[in-house]
Amino acid sequence: MSEMANIDPEGMDGVRMTWNVWPRTKVEASKCVIPLAATIAPIRPHPDIPTLPYAPLRCKTCAAALNSFARVDFTAKIWICPFCFQRNHFPQQYSMISETNLPGELYPQYTTVQYTLPHPSQQHYQHQQQQQPPPSDSSPVFVFVLDTCMIEEELDFVKSALKRAIGMLPDNALVGLVSFGTQAQVHELGFSELSKVYVFRGDKEISKEQVLEQLGLSGGVAGRRTAAVPVGYQKGGIQNVFPNGGIARFLLPASECEYTINTLLDELQTDQWPVPPGNRASRCTGVALSVAAGLLGACLPGTGARIVALVGGPCTEGPGTIISKDLSDPVRSHKDLDKDAAPYFKKAVKFYDNLAKQLVNQGHVLDLFASALDQVGVAEMKVAVERTGGLVVLAESFGHSVFKDSFKRVFEDGEQSLGLCFK
């Protein structure tokens, strides 16, 4: 058996095998010191991977995409799925294909391709032609959740980083802003004439339905609450233009709200709630994340959205609390967790576990950027980050290069981009 000797063994497909030669018999297979295995990197970038400007054509039985391993009858305009052997008719837009006029996905050298999905209205038209499940809106969504319980210098650092990040976003990216301290505030970006916020108490858990109701996004008849219908959302998954009265009050394209958010950040102050001597600041991290998740879940279910949390200390108020406000009470250590001597731990983990389930169900991601000299509660919060495929960055200060460089790479394009995925 030959060992790997290629310069780029993974090639354009991002697949690496422990052996390059398949055993011919069971005896040969049993003699393999290293078992047969493969690692697959589905989003590995490669210059030879073509980008096709349309949605993939899928098998009507198993939903596998048309690929170069499919058998094609060019005369009858039929392709046979190599996975389930289902015979599929080509739609009208493939009517010109022939052995000398192949679509990109049928070229034998293109065993991996990527697709750029068209605008949702075009996708809907394509759905009618191909009878495929309707795709979701391709605009990325970012809701920034900003902690204001920090000294003025730290808040200035994080505000500067936020302004730079919003300037790097694509023009069509939707942006929202939630700030929190003792209470959580959702900022209305669609009302630029006046700084307008919706305030949520930080000392008690809040459901998605309550978020809807308080933000004025739920429907009701004759005083009775009915099932919430997201404003600007149709059955079938196609997003239409959001009216000013709905989601566009809170989530706006970056090109339209950059000035408004920069103005809001300039006016934003550290949390004004008084902190008695010997106490920690009252910080309702859990409620702020619940509100952000509720807003996204109510308005943009199933779209590619990220909640980007910028936290400067431990949660001391409401759900997700990890420590009391009394400074004489030390933050739990690894030994405390091992001995089951952390009184807030299990309740906080349960809260974030439920938040993780909600985010996974909605298809949304939680990223955590925590900058503090003390602990911020990542042990409790990590379940929500891990299950949604988010990032965690820990630094001593929002002015530290670890935070600033990492935060910039999330949003920039080019070779330095992290190439983040959504949903």
TrEMBL record:
Component of the coat protein complex II (COPII) which promotes the formation of transport vesicles from the endoplasmic reticulum (ER). The coat has two main functions, the physical deformation of the endoplasmic reticulum membrane into vesicles and the selection of cargo molecules. Pfam families: Sec23_trunk, zf-Sec23_Sec24. One of its GO terms (cellular component) is COPII vesicle coat. Its main location: membrane. Keywords: Cytoplasm, Cytoplasmic vesicle, Endoplasmic reticulum, ER-Golgi transport, Membrane, Metal-binding, Protein transport, Transport, Zinc. It comes from the Eukaryota. One of its GO terms (biological process) is COPII-coated vesicle cargo loading. This is Protein transport protein SEC23. Belongs to the SEC23/SEC24 family. SEC23 subfamily. Residues 139-411 form the Sec23/Sec24 trunk domain. It is found in: Cytoplasmic vesicle, COPII-coated vesicle membrane; Endoplasmic reticulum membrane. One of its GO terms (molecular function) is zinc ion binding. Residues 56-94 form the Zinc finger Sec23/Sec24-type domain. It is a peripheral membrane protein.
